[in-house]
């Protein structure tokens, strides 16, 4: 059985330690496994052990995590091992994976969340700076807070409590164990030679066009989940409960960046599923947001789900015009018709962002819209502008928004914003620039206003709240240079709290505190629309876990009948 | 001839130097430091500094023996272009892409050339007739339609509707199966311009006295056209053909991208999209080198086919 997927962009690397993009994750997570992951079916999302034997044992002060590792887990066979036979996974492999991210010479994109978290790890990073190359570093040098107590026990000691460590780090592909033998053997080419413990292994990777994984015959095995949401049985997601996975023998990804061939591949039945390209949206989705008759006739199903993310036009609060002028920032927020923006640029499929914590996260506040932070009200915007002019001491000068791209989307987006602000008498210049220039200027606080956004990596909103802390000023995540001592104090109190209803209330309070200061025009939360053929089973959307191909199954008979169905539809003129 | 070649090779030195200088200024000085892009959105200053060091962005631009400019030179002359932004060896990427590109552009070029020259000879022979006018109108229409339209229509109609060809490159099948449709589209899309060009070349030749003489002597039309006219029209044909050869290696940007063919055209498009200046730089250098070499070959070919031209 073969799963036939489409990737809309090429992947950069198969080395989990330096991997951050979604598409690489989609592939690599089938090969590498993590200590923990999210349950495939249960909602709200629930963390379950994968390579760990059980949930971590956490000390009373929340500082020490002791994790038992499953016995008998083996790395896939590879020439990097003596005799080519994969060895057993040990706790020291996790120690190595985390130390490797800390290695300054490795220059991992994943260092930021670990910075200042684990006892002794920052010192280890300092130590690595003295070496010339990544592989010159002696990984035997101990890190006090990161130890393999024995072959099957990992202990992590934190500098301060970090209740989200399991979701942010231990469930993330970045800490998936990579055998040191493989890194030493392949060195920089480890990016193309994954050696994991997962259900699939790489057979062929033709960069920019094709990836083929085959079943890892030595994988320890797992059963399809038997529990889920109440609706899962009705939707057929529990039909395979208790069966051994993976179902597929091979997974193929074709990398197709252009919309037309991707769409034609789906329609011809050569791909099992596809996120709907913008230009094909009306053909696939009706005005009632259901699959069109054409799709239904072909047995193509529509799935929609919140893709937890928020996009905004941010204000640089260090800017002399914007920073000290709350009425101006409010006026800028009132003057943007977000629904029009979503209709124009996203086929009306996204949701208006009334705050910055997005739907799908545990602490999303369903009543946030009532606060009116994203209200579109031109009369109020004009009134606020007059107030802003009094505050400024004269007419508001021309404002400038930085766009992180020069393509058609950003051009049109820039023009849209200009028209929106023209309505209330604000002149806006748009500065289109390439990504590195944009990032450099943003981090130096040189952008007055800027278009940006973020996607959630776990159901906890801590990363979103962290964007407004003073200690996280750019080049950290706070590109707004928002600083509010009351917010900082509450954040520091909240960030070490374990999940609880009280913490959720504080999260919501923090969000509203920041929103009251109008640090940005929050625009939209993405809603994903995907199509899949009826033969593609167990395709339940999941936004925080990627290693799900082991659960997917294809009804081969139904797939084989598809060409006949197409001919029949053609004869009927459909 | 040897002296001529040596002289021309000497001319190549300043040209190649100029190209290297221009690419360096464009991609390194003007293009800026792309360490932040490689390091990722949340990278700290240390990580960015490491990447700057790894790629040599922390070296002086020009005035040092170990500068970014000398590195640029060294890479070009050793053909060791280093690693791309995804940390794969650029030379490996390029070598891997040459085959698929040539599989596509080679037959496309030959097919287009043979069809264009043969049709041009025939059209030149029937000049002024309704056939000539019809051919010119079709050529102009073909030239007016954007290349992309040919691709979109061809892919939709021949691959999706009729199912005669694969929609996209199939690595598990022989390459010829995947390049059939792009070759066909490439020939049709490019034929209009080529045919118009060769028609003009042939018309210039066919009006000469020697053609009338050959017909007066009773030679057949086929012999006159393919033996005498074609031979004398070789100079513009050689110019056009030999200078087009380097572009074959570079592949076809749009066709490769739409049909997912992993050639150099696709590699270049991707590199431009992701601002991978290392790849763009290497490709620009290789292309300019090929142009210079093939220009020299063109000059040598002129002498071989036209006795009026000498190496002096």
Description:
The complex is a heterodimer of chains A (574) and B (312). The relative contact order of chain A is 0.14. Chain A has 574 residues and is an alpha+beta fold. Chain A is globular. A six-stranded mixed β-sheet of chain A has the order 16-20-15-19-17-18. A four-stranded mixed β-sheet of chain A has the order 1-12-9-8, with no helix packed on it. Among the domains of chain A are: 32-197, Dipeptide-binding Protein, Domain 1 (Dipeptide-binding Protein, domain 1, Alpha-Beta Complex), CATH 3.90.76; 309-525, Dipeptide-binding Protein, Domain 3 (Dipeptide-binding Protein, domain 3, Roll). In chain A, helix 10 runs antiparallel to helix 12. The mean pLDDT of chain A is 95. Chain B has 312 residues and is mainly alpha-helical. Chain B has a domain at 100-265 and 291-305: Orthogonal Bundle (MetI-like fold), CATH 1.10.3720. Helices cover 75% and strands 0% of the residues of chain B. Chain B contains 14 helices and no strands. The radius of gyration of chain B is 24 Å and the shape is flat. Chains A and B meet through helix 7 and helix 14 of A and helix 2, helix 3, helix 7 and helix 13 of B.
């Amino acid at each position: 059985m073969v799963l036939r997927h489409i990737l809309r962009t090429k992947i950069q690397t198969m080395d989990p330690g330096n991997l951050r993009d979604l598409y690489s994750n989609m592939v690599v997570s089938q090969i590498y496994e993590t200590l923990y992951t999210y349950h495939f079916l249960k909602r709200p999302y629930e963390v379950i052990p994968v390579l760990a034997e059980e949930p971590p044992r956490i000390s009373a002060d929340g500082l020490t995590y002791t994790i038992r590792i499953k016995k008998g887990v083996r790395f896939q066979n590879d020439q990097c091992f003596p005799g080519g036979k994969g060895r057993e996974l040990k706790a020291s492999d996790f120690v190595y994976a985390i130390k490797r991210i800390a290695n300054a010479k490795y220059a991992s994109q994943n260092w930021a969340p670990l910075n200042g978290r684990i006892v002794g790890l920052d010192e280890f990073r300092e130590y690595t700076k003295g070496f010339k190359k990544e592989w010159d570093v002696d990984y035997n040098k101990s890190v006090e807070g990161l130890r393999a107590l024995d072959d099957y026990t990992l202990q992590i000691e934190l500098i301060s409590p970090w209740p989200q460590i399991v979701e942010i780090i231990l469930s993330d592909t970045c800490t998936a164990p990579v055998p040191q033998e493989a890194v030493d053997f392949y060195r920089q080419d480890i990016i193309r030679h994954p050696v994991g413990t997962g259900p699939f292994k790489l057979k062929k990777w033709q960069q920019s066009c094709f990836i083929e994984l085959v079943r890892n015959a030595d994988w320890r095995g797992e059963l399809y989940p038997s529990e889920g949401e109440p609706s899962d049985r009705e939707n057929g997601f529990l039909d395979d409960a208790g069966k051994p996975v993976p179902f597929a023998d091979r997974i193929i990804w074709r990398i197709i960046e252009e919309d037309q061939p991707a769409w034609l591949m789906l329609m011809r039945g050569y791909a099992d599923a596809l996120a709907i390209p913008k230009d094909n949206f009306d053909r696939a989705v009706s005005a009632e947001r259901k699959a069109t008759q054409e799709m239904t006739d072909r047995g193509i199903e529509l799935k929609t789900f919140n893709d937890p993310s928020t996009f905004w036009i941010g204000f640089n609060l260090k800017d002399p015009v914007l920073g000290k002028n709350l009425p101006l920032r409010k006026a800028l927020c009132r003057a943007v018709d977000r629904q029009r923006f979503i209709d124009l640029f996203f086929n009306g499929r996204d949701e208006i962002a009334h705050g910055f914590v997005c739907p799908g996260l545990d602490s999303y506040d369903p009543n946030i819209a009532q606060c009116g932070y994203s209200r579109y009200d031109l009369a109020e915007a004009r009134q606020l502008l007059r107030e802003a002019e009094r505050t400024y001491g004269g007419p508001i000068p021309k404002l400038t928004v930085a766009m992180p791209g020069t393509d058609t989307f950003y051009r049109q987006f820039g023009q849209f914003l200009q028209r929106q602000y023209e309505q209330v008498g604000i002149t806006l210049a748009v500065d289109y620039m390439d990504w590195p220039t944009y990032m450099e200027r943003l981090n130096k606080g040189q952008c007055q206003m800027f278009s940006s956004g973020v996607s959630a990596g776990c159901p906890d909103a801590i990363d979103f709240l962290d964007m407004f802390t003073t200690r996280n000023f750019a080049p950290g995540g706070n590109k707004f240079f928002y600083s509010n001592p009351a917010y900082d104090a509450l954040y520091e109190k909240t960030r070490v709290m374990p999940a609880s209803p009280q913490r959720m209330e504080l999260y919501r309070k923090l969000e509203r505190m920041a929103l009251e200061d109008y640090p940005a025009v929050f625009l939209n939360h993405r809603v994903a629309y995907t199509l899949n053929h009826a033969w593609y089973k167990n395709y339940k959307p999941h936004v925080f876990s990627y290693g799900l191909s082991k659960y997917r199954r294809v009804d081969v008979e139904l797939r084989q009948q598809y060409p006949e169905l197409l001919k029949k539809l053609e004869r009927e003129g459909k | 001839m040897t002296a001529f070649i040596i002289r021309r090779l000497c001319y190549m030195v300043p040209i190649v130097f100029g190209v290297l200088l221009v690419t360096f200024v464009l991609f390194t000085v003007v293009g800026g430091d792309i360490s932040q892009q490689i390091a990722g959105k949340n990278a700290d200053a240390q990580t960015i500094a490491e990447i700057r060091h790894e790629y040599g962005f922390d070296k002086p631009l020009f005035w040092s023996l170990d500068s970014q400019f000398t590195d640029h030179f060294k890479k070009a002359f050793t053909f060791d272009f280093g690693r791309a932004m995804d940390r794969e060896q650029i030379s490996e990427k390029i070598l891997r892409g040459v085959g698929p590109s040539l599989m596509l552009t080679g037959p496309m070029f030959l097919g287009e050339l043979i069809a264009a020259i043969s049709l041009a000879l025939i059209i030149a022979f029937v000049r002024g007739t309704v056939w000539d006018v019809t051919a010119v109108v079709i050529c102009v229409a073909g030239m007016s339609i954007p290349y992309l339209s040919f691709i979109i229509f061809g892919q939709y109609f021949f691959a999706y509707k009729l199912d005669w060809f694969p929609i996209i490159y199939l690595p598990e099948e022989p390459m010829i199966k995947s390049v059939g449709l792009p070759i066909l589209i490439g020939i049709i899309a490019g034929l209009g311009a080529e045919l118009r060009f060769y028609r003009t070349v042939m018309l210039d030749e066919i009006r000469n006295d020697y053609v009338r003489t050959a017909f007066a002597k009773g030679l057949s039309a086929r012999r006159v056209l393919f033996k005498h006219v074609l031979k004398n029209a070789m100079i513009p044909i050689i110019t056009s053909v030999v200078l087009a050869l380097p572009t074959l290696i570079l592949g076809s940007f749009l066709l490769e991208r739409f049909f997912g063919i992993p050639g150099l055209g696709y590699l270049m498009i991707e590199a431009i999209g992701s601002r991978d200046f290392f790849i763009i730089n290497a490709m620009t250098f290789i292309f300019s080198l090929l142009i210079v070499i093939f220009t020299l070959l063109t000059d040598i070919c002129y002498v071989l086919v036209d006795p009026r031209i000498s190496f002096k």
